[in-house]
Design brief:
The chain has five helices and eleven strands; from the N terminus they run βαββαβαββαβββββα. By secondary structure, the chain is α/β, with parallel strands linked by helices. The radius of gyration is 21 Å and the shape is elongated.
Length: 225
């Protein structure tokens, strides 16, 4: 897979290193000569150019890329790169870094963004995920299709504890993708039972999040006495 990364700072180089280790072809683009540090990621291609300029993106052969990652520290640049990648070059997958959470609302399909990654939001979400039981935590927003990756730790008193996945009437536009149980990562089947303490990861439409949280958090009726 060919991936172009706009922004060769610490974030861009780190992403490039991970992708190269996984066998992908990576091009790093930056307009600052001081950012061109070939020795830091020698396996990558490097291009000294302004990723907001069509001529630069032509030189980068962006039309051959499967993924473009806008990873600069400037939200305006990341939006422009995303829009050009999607509309001018038809790149199938565009991932954009959000530096200022106040700008997150802009990073959507209208600007060519398929996945927006907000580091401050992700960090706060991971903190919430670590301490919250029974509360839905949004981990990642997918701009295309208005879907989110969300997590909920099933509480001890949940009415769904002990229920098989296939017997649950999940909300529309919702998919259970992973169950994390202790150190195990399970791909859920219809026969798997939900257990208290399970970390459940869903891809869900934003409009269904409240309904999903209510379904998972509802308490079982007390039949004692």
């Amino acid at each position: 897979m060919r991936v172009a990364i706009a922004g060769a700072g610490a974030v861009g180089r780190s992403i490039a290193g991970e992708l190269l280790e996984n066998g992908h072809e990576v091009l790093l683009i930056d307009k600052a000569p001081t950012a061109i540090s070939v020795e830091r990621v020698p396996q990558a291609e490097w291009l000294l150019a302004d990723a907001c300029e069509i001529t630069s993106l032509d030189e980068a052969a962006l039309q051959r890329c499967n993924v473009v990652i806008a990873a600069t520290g400037d939200d305006k640049v990341n939006l422009v790169v995303s829009l050009l990648a999607k509309t001018e070059y038809g790149v199938p997958r565009v991932v954009a870094r959000v530096n200022n959470p106040k700008n997150e609302w802009l990073f959507n399909e209208a600007w060519g963004v398929d996945v927006a990654v907000s580091t401050p939001r992700l960090m706060s979400a991971l903190v919430e995920e670590a301490v919250s039981v029974g509360d839905l935590v949004r981990l990642l927003r997918f701009s295309h299709g208005d879907a989110n990756l969300v997590e909920l730790t099933l509480p001890e008193e949940s009415a769904l504890a002990g229920t098989q996945v296939g017997d649950v009437q999940w909300p529309e536009d919702t998919s259970l993708v992973t169950i994390i149980r202790g150190t195990r990562v399970l791909t859920p089947s219809k026969e798997d039972s939900l257990e208290p303490g399970d970390e459940l990861l869903f891809v869900a439409a934003q409009a269904r999040e409240e309904q999903l949280e209510e379904l998972l958090s509802v308490r079982r009726e007390d039949t004692s006495g």
